[in-house]
Amino acid sequence: AAARGGGAGPGPARYDHKVDVFAAGLVAFELCAAPFATQMERIVSLRGAREGDFPEGTHPHVSQMVRWLAAPEAAQRPTAREAIAAIESWLEACRAAQPHAQADEDDDGGVANHAACGAASIVVGVRHGAATGRHIDA
């Protein structure tokens, strides 16, 4: 159970907030990935992302973020607070480097970067309660 939180010993699985961080990593990947042609392609891509293997063309910031958030061992994953701080910092750099007004003029890498910025914005928006109405504590 790679997504397990704390205690990875024998007995019943114990889950903690690190499971949510793992899930956020896979959601971020799915939001940044090119549209999947089939359900099987989606399954294979998500399985690959869980193992740190990303499709060609995945923006390096996205693969780095997903590897960190969805690390196989819970102890290697950030807390929600650490993840949010890092993603907010990355978003600021992303926005400063490529203003959204230039999206149509950028090459494919620029468009991918804008998609990555959008996905990170959603992850941060969920933290602030925009999607759930709840505040994440970690």
Please explain how this structure is put together:
By secondary structure, the chain is mainly alpha-helical. Helix content is 54%, strand content 0%. The chain is built from five helices and no strands. It has helices at 18-32, 39-50, 60-69, 80-97, 108-127. The longest helix is centred in the last third of the chain and has 20 residues, at 108-127. Mean pLDDT is 74; it is low at 101-106 and 126-138.
List the topology elements.
Elements: H1 18-32, H2 39-50, H3 60-69, H4 80-97, H5 108-127
Helix pairs in contact: 1-3, 1-5, 4-5
For the terminal residues, how far apart are their CA atoms? 22 Å
Number of helices: 5
Name the structural class: mainly alpha
Mean pLDDT: 74
Q: Helix proportion of residues, in percent?
A: 40-55%
- Write down the overall geometry: flat
What letter string, H or E per element, gives the SSE order?
A: HHHHH
Give the DSSP E fraction (strand runs of 2 or more residues): under 5%
Oligomerization state: single chain
Return residue spans where pLDDT drops below 50 for at least 5 consecutive residues: 101-106, 126-138
What is the radius of gyration? 16 Å
Report the sheet with the most strands, covering strand number, pairing sense and barrel closure: none
Give the tally of β-strands. Answer: 0
